[in-house]
Amino acid sequence: MLQLANVTKRYGNLVAVDGISLEIRRGECFGLLGPNGAGKSTTMSLIAGLRVPDAGSISLDGQSLVAGRADLRLALGLVPQHVALYTELSAEQNLRIFGELYGLRGAELRARIDEALAAVQLTDRRRDLVKTYSGGMARRLNLVAALLHRPKVLLCDEPTVGVDPQSRNAIFEYLERLSREGLTIIYSTHYMEEATRLCSRIGIVDHGKLHALGTLDELLARLPFEEEIRFPADAVTAPFAAALRPHGELTTAENAHRFRPAAAYKLSAFFALAESHGLPGRLFTSQRPTLEAVFLHLTGRSLRE
Ligand SMILES: Nc1ncnc2c1ncn2[C@@H]1O[C@H](COP(=O)(O)OP(=O)(O)O)[C@@H](O)[C@H]1O
Ligand SMILES: [Mg+2]
Fold first, then answer.
1. Protein residues whose CB sits closer than 6 Å to any atom of ligand 1
2. Minimum-distance ligand 1 atom for the alpha carbon of 44
3. Mind listing the pLDDT tens digit for each residue in 69-106?
4. Which of 154, 231, 265, 272 is a Cys-bridge partner for 247, taking CB atoms 3.0 to 4.6 Å apart?
């Protein structure tokens, strides 16, 4: 449906988006996962037409978006990373301005404003000035402002950063509902938990490059291990750690050890080794790795700063 082919964007000498090619399918929620500075916002702004790529092409249903056709742009809605609202106006007045920009008028506009406010639980605050809103309320309003014209594709650029848990949940539930109803969503985030929960396919980006793309299972399958074993740091003796090292990767983080067995090393062998060092199995928990491990494996860096 939406196609990026070799899209590149530079700011001076810095290559912010470096030859990204991908295709977003109709009705999917596609995640763009990467740390700060990866090029997510630049990619979003290129798709939304706020910036022009230095190279490559972006097309929607086979028609070039870069050519700047206004009718094609109407098919897109962008929720920008930084809240873009008039703080001296009410929620209702803000939505009226956004709706009119998209050519909505009269009863239709009023109905869509009512629907938008209800969808993110702001109906009873509709006449209050946005400057009196919490960060989470402003984020919710920012989200529905991008949907008033009923775009075919919603671009959500880190919509939950700095948001309280209640608003975050409201945003998530609303996006999940929109997704179930068939809206195509591109969701950028540096939180792997969000990408895991919301997105059917995920692209991993860093330094402007797309490092991998796939479903969660496909991405996890790129790891050379299938399970991670965790145990408290104080439960492990130096001889055990030394015996373990040849069989995988042992790391210490947040007062806990984490062992990632090499592909050929069986969990049963691990537990036998632990027993022989007087360490009972109950000290250990084994779990499926996360996207964090995939990111580390592919880029050599951590997602978290
Ligand atoms: N307007 C700009 N001028 C110069 N450099 C920019 C500008 N916007 C972003 N950058 C740089 O481009 C890179 C990608 O930024 P951005 O797309 O905002 O990443 P992300 O959204 O993943 O954090 C970063 O190194 C950032 O500092
Ligand atoms: Mg950004």
1. 11, 14, 16, 34, 36-42
2. 17
3. 777 778 999 999 999 999 999 999 999 999 999 899 99
4. 265
